[in-house]
């Protein structure tokens, strides 16, 4: 049964799904929905996802959107996926759902508000809202503190005291990677104090090598372009 | 194994969990965490949920928070729960996850912003933000339109074209019930145009009778109290 991933690698949940498939040997066709070209608003994409967002998948004739739901589906529907990504044990699974649900209203909401209003809006030529950026940073910082003090337990390399990554590690680390679009000093200010999180990012990267870097390589030229745009904006 | 639910019935996800347990014959002890008395900030509750939010559960020595994760856990861990609440089929389950994930950033986010800033803040003596109320209403209305046109398909009484309710129906209907705290004309303006949603609320209520009304009965005196507070505030 053919699997199509409708993604844009600048979108953090799109990257999580691409890395997940590659790391687990799941074959797929990558269909780029170019957000900068507003392709997510094209009528043919509304057939795939009426919410007009990436990522979305089509597997045979089954359509699905929402990245956490997709990760759970892929981990459940493809028999080759290693157990640690989404354990069958009801309590272990519940903890993964709990992190992913928490993510929606905390880290993700903060990160999207901050990065959109400090970087993405500039790249897309849209107006930025400084107050929303500040609120986003506040929520993102509070979320990183909770990750550092609660979700990353003791010396275990992954969330929930696990020795191997789950879909939650991948989803949350890809979100934090969005900070690559921020200015270097801002990134250092927000992320620098959290040594445990920096180690976790590295551990997740290593556990999914070489795909993590391959899929994130798109961020480098965009970051350079954003630097130029910021210089231009400050000279106006 | 003993099940304790840490809840406040004024919280919509708390109500969803209480109704779910009652409708499925799951025995539990209800531990009220009085939000108006800020009991969710008490140190003894941080032992249960370090995020200081209701609902949370303790089942034996297993602790869990985030209401969607709790509903999935209860449906999976208690063998008496009817299949339709959380089907075993991977694709049916994926669709339920998709609705629940969508809910986080849409209906729930809109509803919380709107109801907090038009009613709950007043009840708790906290400052309300009219702009956040307006943004909340806009997002809530857009979400109700998507429910009406997409998630509630054809003539099926429940979400995703189902003939029986799932945990997603319960979670989302309890969220919409929070509009009972709004002024009558506001509720009519927001919800009135959506006949399909009004029918769905009724169908969910009937499918979980008499527990739905029993658990929601707490809203009536609070709504009356809110009316009084609004009159007092307007006379100032």
UniProtKB/TrEMBL annotation, chains A, B:
Residues 89-229 form the GST C-terminal domain. InterPro entries: Glutathione-S-Trfase_C-like, Glutathione-S-Trfase_C_sf, Glutathione_S-Trfase, Glutathione_S-Trfase_N, GST_N_Theta, GSTT1/2/3, Thioredoxin-like_sf. One of its GO terms (molecular function) is glutathione transferase activity. The keyword Transferase applies. Pfam families: GST_N. It catalyses: RX + glutathione = an S-substituted glutathione + a halide anion + H(+). It is an enzyme of class 2 (transferase). The keyword Cell cycle does not apply. Keywords: Detoxification, Transferase. Residues 1-82 form the GST N-terminal domain. Its EC number is 2.5.1.18. GO terms for biological process: toxin catabolic process. Signal peptide: none annotated. Belongs to the GST superfamily. Theta family. This is glutathione transferase. It comes from Sesamum indicum (Oriental sesame). The gene is LOC105164106.
